[in-house]
Amino acid sequence: MTRSAEMLSYLPFTRPTIDEETIAGVSDVLRSGWITSGPFVREFEEKLSILFGGRQVRVFNSGTAALEIALRIAGIGAGDEVITTPLSWVATSNVILTVGARPVFVDIDPVTRNIDLNTIEAAITPATKAILPVDLAGLPVDRDRLYEIANRHGLRVIEDAAQSLGSLWNGKWIGSTGDLVSFSFHPNKNMTSIEGGCLVMTDESEATLAEQYRLQGVLRSGYDGMEVEILGGKSNLTDVAARVGIGQLARLDEFNRLRRDLSREYFRQLDRPEFHALGLGLPVADFEQSNCHMFQVILPETALSRAEVMEKLHELGIGTGVHYPAIHLFKLYQSLGWKPGDYPHAEKAGRAILTLPLFPTMTTADVSRVTGALLNILQS
Ligand SMILES: *Cc1c(COP(=O)(O)O)cnc(C)c1O
Q1: Which of 57, 227, 312, 325 has its CA 20 to 30 A from that of 173?
Q2: CA 177 to CA 179: how far, in whole Å?
Q3: Model confidence over 325-348: pLDDT tens digits?
Q4: Which atom number of ligand 1 is nearest to the Cα of residue 65?
Q5: Percentage of the chain surpassing pLDDT 70?
């Protein structure tokens, strides 16, 4: 290794960009005397609502909470089935179990890596209440076909758009149309509130339910009125977190543009004969609709395991991630009846998918460093 290579700093697979203005804003909140849910939560919700065409939006302390509450608002519980993808963060299906319903997985489309819309109708039963798709890496699921299927069968749609904030469908923001749409502001997402999430809803009554579910079921009225009619939990966002989110939201377009530019650069460098010869699998090249949340390759079957490729990259100062192992192969899910072989495309992706570094402050030289290292390792 050359001296300069030794001095290169570690390149993580992702990294939030928090500016000084936001840090100063957080300090102000901390000094203000009101640090939990308050005016900044309301401001954050108003700003988000503008992005989603004025629809009702409420924020929560995680994207998982937003998804779980979406299921509760849709009235989904024991005896109900929800059709979803096995290639996602396990939160996607855990929330279905949490509300007492049963996830019904269908395989992914190996090209988009998203739920295969062609397989949904065969999975619908009288118990099916909803479809819960995921826009993996920000690549939007075909909303026209999705809603055509849902409407034909009278199903609700709960969009797990945790990864697709700023992605477009028919030129409009994901979330600005559709049924219940959930986002996450985890630090690895395209914008963060440290932890947090939001849900876009269809009307005011759903927004009121969301407020009840996120804070002990409490409904307030007048100066001293308080009533509890339904069981709620505790998933309100703090004003400190909301202030971070407001600072991030102001830069989301810029962050997404930088991610798109870097993804284009990855394509320029990876969509070449030497990588084709190795059999490296590339994602769909979508720089128009996707927010380019992650850049994920499918490793070819070589002498090296994925873990060994990750270790070698790590030794060269390059971080990578796995998003995700197929959900139905986790022990919890196998104990509920799923088994290897159920969803071959998701299983193959789950074994071989690798997330390469991608975050707004990366440079094209960083991309070259990653692709050069990957080529050396895969050719070795
Ligand atoms: C991040 C993520 C979630 C959960 O969001 P949290 O804010 O971490 O709770 C759910 N689904 C998908 C697809 C995600 O990527």
Answers
A1: 325
A2: 7
A3: 999 999 999 999 999 999 999 999
A4: 9
A5: 98
